[in-house]
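Reply to dn_fold:

You asked what the input looked like. This is it:
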Amino acid sequence: MKPFRISSPRLAQPPPVLIMKNVSYLLPGVFYALFGCSSSGAPASEQPTTKPASAAVAAAAPAAKGKVLVVLSSRQEIPLQAGKTYRTGYYLNELMTPVEAIIRAGYEPVFANPKGNAVAADEHSLSADYFGKDTSRYRRILQLRASLTQLRQPRKLADVVQSGLDGYRGVFFPGGHAPMGDLLTDPAVGQVLRYFHAQQKPTVLICHAPIALLAANPGAVAFTTALAAGQPAQKLASGWPYQGYRMTVFSTAEEKVAEGKQLGGKVLFYPDAALRAAGGRVQTAKEWSSNVVQDRELITGQNPFSDDRLSQLFVEALNASPAPAHL
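and this is what came back:
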């Protein structure tokens, strides 16, 4: 098998990295750092060995600028074709890089998912490779995550909707393959998205998470069922509020690499094709390069390496949005 090349601005120099079929000799984390966007905790060697730093605890305290809703998947595995499954979770950098940015900017993250169940990181994402090989930054992120007690026990999303969304400045969906298993058809996710769309409040999704936008379609279940069956689905998305929006998501080219090297099977359908079928103007860039697309209230990032730029635009959008009347 001929080797193939993938380069990323987030990997150590000199890029590109040469990957071959048998890569067990590579440094731990490098292989998966190339192919993931998707439950287990960190290995003992990657857990913080000391009490979380005081700065991290202080940063996680309730903030004066208001709350940001962070919607995670409840799934720990997703279905693949031919009856296969893939064990997954959130991707560490895709969750924590934006969360750290909004906390530093003075906002309080509120974590929720469809079942209100505990969630964990995809083990493939537990690597400093996603943080520019900066081990000190990686450790800081692990400490900050450990200080976020509410992350370990998210609220049930339907309860958040029931209690009202007016107090939230924006909404954020982290990536990982997990949203492919539940968020794209979840009724509460649809309610959240339609609310933030109507209010033109910042709506931010990265990597696989933009697939959750399909939940805003009243016919989401029929639409995704048709996609998985390889049937025409466009007419089933006539009520989707994001038709005509520019957006991005994990590309078919990237997903095919992940299928062959990480998932062990094929996804039911490709995220970019699904969003195009629904009426989105999907703009993908070269594989593994940072790509963030902003259109009105919607900010989307293509892959794990889009996290820094997405975080920057997210904070700018939050700062530009009107504050709730009680603040």
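The CA atoms of residues 57 and 147 lie 6 Å apart.
Hope that clears it up.
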